[in-house]
Amino acid sequence: MSSNLPKVAWIGLGIMGSPMSENLVKAGYQVTGYTLEQDKIDRLVAAGGKGAASIADAVRDADVVITMVPASPQVEAIAYGPDGILENVRQGTLLIDMSSITPQTSVDLASSAKKKGVRVLDAPVSGGEAGAIEAVLSIMVGGEQTDFDAAKPLLDALGKTIVLCGPHGSGQTVKAANQLIVAVNIQACAEAVVFLEKSGVDLAAALDVLNGGLAGSTVLTRKKDNFLKRDFAPGFRIDLHHKDMGIVTDAARNVGAALPVGGVVAQLVASLRAQGDGGLDHSALLRSVERLSGSQV
């Protein structure tokens, strides 16, 4: 383990955070993790990291703090207050928030952190659980160029496409656009699947040939097996995509951008969640189309 690499504190070891933090360990970083579930801390320790008993304990000696939690309220809960990150880190620490939250939350966090002498990047990701495990995530970053340059080697251990998109909040804005495109794409694929099946076509063959042409997409490549096997074990939960569609519709309204199709898909995601499917993978939008098409789900 190289001693000149920055010491990393990792807060949030969920579906994404666990494999991402383990990839940093593999890259030679000393990673101290904290999350609410002890078994997830144990998993990081088993992979060669360290466990912490609290946020304060995790971040005290860190050069870089990375957070990966579900939404804005959780980011605020771990960042602020006497037991939070900002009260317990050293001045000059770099805080990289990789959660998907509202752009405004990121802007506010950067402003609050600056008063404490803490540098911040918002760096949400796309690629889902598979992208996290394979370290091929797309990482969209908002913040200062110098902080981005400092973080780049570390981000290179987590993803493949890493781009500074502009000032604080810009990473979150691009992530919101990403979630809009992904949701609409999954919905289109789901509608095609139901149409193909009801037409009596060999679904596997149809999806293969469609994915080889202009209709092909990373979404179809990643989610094809989910559709074929009706396997909706969560890589990215409907609950989280529901949160993200709220972010993008709200942010779009604030800037005066119309999202006619996005608005419809946001409602379809919301209805799927209301039907009790919030814990399923977002490819379960297929279930919504099946219900609308008269199938028993």
From TrEMBL:
GO MF annotations, alphabetized = 2-hydroxy-3-oxopropionate reductase activity
Q: Where is the 3-hydroxyisobutyrate dehydrogenase-like NAD-binding domain?
A: 169-287
Gene3D superfamilies registered for this protein in UniProt? N-(1-d-carboxylethyl)-l-norvaline Dehydrogenase, domain 2 (1.10.1040.10), NAD(P)-binding Rossmann-like Domain (3.40.50.720)
Which EC numbers characterise this protein's activity in its record?
1.1.1.60
Tree of life domain: Bacteria
NAD listed as a keyword: yes
Which part of the chain is the 6-phosphogluconate dehydrogenase NADP-binding domain? 7-166
The alphabetical list of record keywords is: NAD, Oxidoreductase
Q: Which InterPro entries match?
A: 6-PGluconate_DH-like_C_sf, 6PGD_dom2, 6PGDH_NADP-bd, HIBADH-like_NADP-bd, HIBADH-related, NAD(P)-bd_dom_sf, Tartro_sem_red
State if NAD is listed as a keyword. yes
Q: Name the protein family.
A: Belongs to the HIBADH-related family.
- What is this protein's name? 2-hydroxy-3-oxopropionate reductase
